[in-house]
Every structure is written in C-alpha cells, then in structure tokens.
Design goal:
Elements lengths: L12 H15 L5 E5 L2 E5 L1 H7 L1 H9 L6 E3 L5 H13 L9 H11 L12 E3 L14 H5 L2 E3 L12 E2 L6
Parallel strand pairs: 1-3
Antiparallel strand pairs: 1-2, 4-5, 5-6
Amino acid sequence: MAVQQYCLRWNNHQPNFISMFTSLLNSESLVDVTLAAEGKHLQAHKVVLSACSSYFQSLFTLNPCQHPIVILKDIKYTDLKVMVDFMYCGEVNVSQEQLPAILKTAETLKVKGLAEMPEHNISLSKSVSVSSDKSCDSPSMRRKRLRKSSTGSGSGSGSTEHTGTMTG
C-alpha cells in the first residue's frame, strides 16, 4: 500500500523572497560582496547576483572569497545600481536616454531577463510621472513597462517584463 504524500505550499513564497532580499539589500544586512564603479561602491549578496547573472556566477565560482570586492571598469556607477536593483526586484525605472547604456551594461554583466534581448522584441510604453520610490512594487513601477514580446506558441513562458520610466 502506497504512503499518501501531502503537498505543503506557501502561496506567498516568491513575493516574500523578493521582499526579503530587497529589504536585506536596503539595510545592507548579510551582504557578502562589494561592487565598485567610478570610485563609488555598493553592497550586495553573491547568491542574488549569481542567480541573475552568469557573469557573477562564474566570477564567484572561479574566485571563492568570503567578501570579494569587484571593481567594474567601463561601467558607470548609476548603471551598476540600476542592474543591482533589477536583479533584486525584477524591474526598474529608467529614462529613455539611459536605456542604451543600461542594456549594454546588462549584456556586459550577462543579466538574465535583459541580456541578449533583440531590439525588435522591445516595446516601450511611455509615462509622464517619474517615481523616486525605491520600492520594487510601487504603483508607478507597475505602470511603466518595457515588455519583451513573446515569440512562439504564445505560452508566455519565455516572456520577461522589464520596467522603465519612459519620457516623451
């Protein structure tokens, strides 16, 4: 006779993960890597960077250090900050003027969801308001979307949403 199995599921698991990691980032709690660009630095978590960037995953795997300091030449600090925010939140606000530099930085750092994104698959939605709120789930961030169009069966499994503050 087979033993009955029970599925225990926490419906808010993913939102809680995002919220907790964002909270840890904002409070700089349990950080284990320092990223530097243009003489400025920010703290982060290797596990989050590795999960979202094959560049960081490879770097941290090949160079195991307790708290590495990664100096990123040829990357602007503001673009780096946007990339880290994207990796933690899954979305960010950027101006149309920032977009090319952000996408170039995403390619350099091999950021999942932004890197290797064909230009023709990007559609920009414009918004008048600009939010200074750092929260990942603010209403203004939900309104401003850059969408990677899904090509294929329409299942949507390959589509990723990206957010940006678009002016115009």
